[in-house]
Design a protein that fits this description.
- By secondary structure, the chain is α+β, with helices and mostly antiparallel strands.
- The chain has one domain: Nuclear Transport Factor 2, Chain: A (Roll), CATH 3.10.450.
- Helix content is 41%, strand content 39%.
- The protein is built from 3 helices and 6 strands, in the order ααββαββββ.
- It has helices spanning 2-45, 47-54, 71-77; strands at residues 55-63, 66-69, 87-97, 103-115, 121-134, 140-144.
- It has a 6-stranded mixed beta sheet with strand order 2-1-6-5-4-3.
Length: 145
């Protein structure tokens, strides 16, 4: 009887681990797709619309010496004239998710393209890091960027 119980517990643990890994892989794919959709929205509707849409209600942005808290503040931040006509491109190089598959993070490279006062195109490149949280409606929203 003890051997049978140990075997059953082993099977349950193995199944649970397999289930967790499947859920984690599903979450990774969802986050990558969310990043793509986010970037596409930024291109078509602008940074203000995209960042406020994909922000969790308690999201925080870190931008140089600025820290912006909350969805509305993020929307207002990107309405500044300096962000008109800006193109922001990015792609995650790495995605990781928690074993509970409700938190994740990405990092990768971005390119920020704008024009200076003389009309000269200026490109800045860097590394981004975003923390994602799965919402009650199963959509992913960032809590830190």
């Amino acid at each position: 009887m003890t051997k049978q119980l140990i075997f059953i517990l082993f099977l349950l643990t193995a199944c649970s681990t397999g289930f967790d890994k499947l859920q984690m892989e599903k979450a990774r794919k969802e986050i990558v797709q969310t990043e793509r959709d986010f970037e596409m929205m930024a291109e078509t509707k602008g940074l203000s619309a995209a960042f406020s849409y994909y922000a969790d209600s308690a999201a925080t942005l870190s931008r140089g010496s600025y820290v912006i808290h909350g969805k509305d503040s993020i929307r207002i931040f990107y309405l500044a004239p300096r962000y008109n006509g800006v193109k922001l491109e990015w792609k995650p190089d790495f995605v990781e998710v928690s074993t509970s598959a409700d938190l994740g993070y990405t990092y990768g490279k971005y390119t920020f393209t704008t024009s200076d006062s003389t009309g000269q195109v200026v490109r800045s490149k860097g590394i981004f890091h975003t923390v994602w949280k799965k919402q009650a409606n199963n959509q992913w929203r960032f809590v830190w960027d």
